[in-house]
Amino acid sequence: DAMVIQNPRYQVTQFGKPVTLSCSQTLNHNVMYWYQQKSSQAPKLLFHYYDKDFNNEADTPDNFQSRRPNTSFCFLDIRSPGLGDAAMYLCATSRDRRVGEQFFGPGTRLTVL
Amino acid sequence: AQSVTQPDIHITVSEGASLELRCNYSYGATPYLFWYVQSPGQGLQLLLKYFSGDTLVQGIKGFEAEFKRSQSSFNLRKPSVHWSDAAEYFCAVGAQEYGNKLVFGAGTILRVKS
Predict the structure, then answer these.
(1) A32-73, pLDDT tens digit by residue?
(2) How far is B45 from chain A (nearest CA, A)?
């Protein structure tokens, strides 16, 4: 089945230690998104890639970076995680930029010690 | 900019009872509306969506939603709730002028009592 895969499902890191979260998709979608979801809150869009075109949200901290080396993979890098960055990170894809369904992965739960 | 309000943070219903989750949106033109469900520790799954046409849309798992332009609402309904429906439900709005960026409501946690 075509799907969105996130690894790892659970990640523990130390305060200030860089961490990378991974997302892959077999849907061959052009757009990939990264959301941050804190406990009992709505998902908040951090940035998205349309093909190789990177689009950052205005309020996304510089501490968060992303890479998309090819259509299938997208990475979220947190350069110096703080306690406030502990959250669920959701990857999603959509076929193109027109409004339509976004397909979500299961998420990575990040804990910062 | 578009926005979404889900007025109920928590709702508890008995198994077999009917369910209605409320969603109000703010957007000047015709929005694109979605309902997603999230089980604990999982990603979001699309239940249904409204783009145009018939204002009553059917989704998966027996859910339906009705778009009411006059009330700026897109409420989710299910005639008979099952214990497996316990989850968090998110309403989201999209608009073509913003590409495919969705704005989510804060979510409603559904508890089902037996």
Answers:
(1) 999 999 988 889 999 999 999 999 999 999 999 999 999 999
(2) 7
